[in-house]
């Protein structure tokens, strides 16, 4: 009987390469076999292979060094959103270092958006804190927090390059922060954001906004942040009961 | 509930109703698939179409059948009380709240698992998996492309199921698959040429990539899915605890 060899599709070729990386435990920045070697190993024609490699590059799984070869990408940090420990805790448990730079810290009047989220009257005094967060000295996110100043008098005197915001809120003001709800979407870095985050203008980034609350559901903090999508992704684990 | 026993001289629509009911209970008509058309049933049993329709209407009222304009009459399986919706996780929020999301199936095929999915699902590379690729529309606008991978052994009769009529979660319910855990990730990636065209975006346009691996109560992976959502068309929401 004739054993007909079906030529593999680009998707199958891509899966072969992903499997190769996984079972051979290739580490970030390890080099993949050459395209010629890969096409022989997996019995692929060159154009299918190139398509698969292109797709893996688009998906951020590998990167290409011109005229040298293809390399495994450093995986993005994964942040679990279900238990959104502050970034500080996340970083500590992943043996990374965190650094914050305060971009601005002001007392402002509540606008419509803040009013709606913190459930306070328009024009209420608000402490607005914007920090650039670094993980292992790489800028990762810009986080802006809005807090009802009446509840946290004197907070403008704290140094948030040294102290963690949640630590101050909980330990110095006795605030109870239990849970929250947030929304994630895609946006593009503005000029200023791109500069701070050390990425190109108009790069796609995550936009996150949300509210943290106490056990009765009263808002404590309204926050908005932008996060580099080339460095981080988010996860959520759902379980029944 | 009607406990009246069906006799040979019972009205024809009642007799046909019980015939269809029995075929569903015996598994000849499987959940998610279409039953024969009114014409076919009328011809098979030598009764007129109005009578067939009365039988179908009765079962539709009971929630056993679902009639879809222009598509046919489908068997609805038993639904469990609980489903994944009660779990918390990312919830997709469409920008427009006018209509229910609609799908167009681009591909619904059976394929070999291959090495990557064999490893993921605990199968042999030559075992079969189902691959579904579909477009999700919100208010007639293509919002996302979704790819779903399901090991074939989980639902051997999956092929005939019309996914434009039932959601995949409904189908899992029909087959008593109890999803208890899902691991989801949200990432940003870029569209390739083919998918960009489908979504009416430029090649390389950034999109939200949502991946979900679902587990059942026997710790089997039931499904792996990927969804590419156009930026600005939809956000994801999540509750968290500190």
CATH architecture term of the largest domain in chain B: 3-Layer(aba) Sandwich
CATH class of the largest domain in chain A: Alpha Beta
Number of strands of chain B: 10
- Compute the number of strand runs of chain A: 10
The largest sheet of chain B, given as strand count, sense and whether it forms a barrel, is: 6 strands, antiparallel
Class computed from helices, strands and strand pairing of chain A: alpha+beta
CATH superfamily of the largest domain in chain B: Chorismate lyase-like
CATH topology of the largest domain in chain B: Chorismate lyase
Number of domains of chain B: 2
- Fraction in beta strands of chain A: 25-35%
Helix content bin of chain A: 25-40%
Shape of chain A: elongated
**Helical run tally of chain B:** 6
Describe this structure in words.
The complex is a heterodimer of chains A (241) and B (242). Helix content of chain A is 26%, strand content 35%. By secondary structure, chain A is α+β, with helices and mostly antiparallel strands. Chain A has 2 domains: 10-72, Arc Repressor Mutant, subunit A (Orthogonal Bundle); 77-235, Chorismate lyase-like (Chorismate lyase). A 6-stranded antiparallel β-sheet of chain A has the order 4-5-6-9-8-7. The mean pLDDT of chain A is 89. By secondary structure, chain B is an alpha+beta fold. Chain B folds into 2 domains: 12-75, Winged helix-like DNA-binding domain superfamily/Winged helix DNA-binding domain (Arc Repressor Mutant, subunit A, Orthogonal Bundle), CATH 1.10.10; 84-237, Chorismate lyase. In chain B, 24% of the residues lie in helices and 36% in strands. Chain B has helices spanning 12-25, 38-45, 49-61, 114-121, 168-174, 193-199, and strands at residues 65-68, 72-75, 91-94, 102-112, 128-138, 141-151, 179-190, 206-216, 221-230, 234-241. In chain B, the strands form 3 sheets. A 6-stranded antiparallel β-sheet of chain B has the order 4-5-6-9-8-7, covered by helices on one side. In chain B, a hairpin with a 2-residue loop joins strand 5 (128-138) and strand 6 (141-151). Residues 81-89 of chain B have low confidence and may be disordered. The chains are: A alpha+beta (241), B alpha+beta (242).
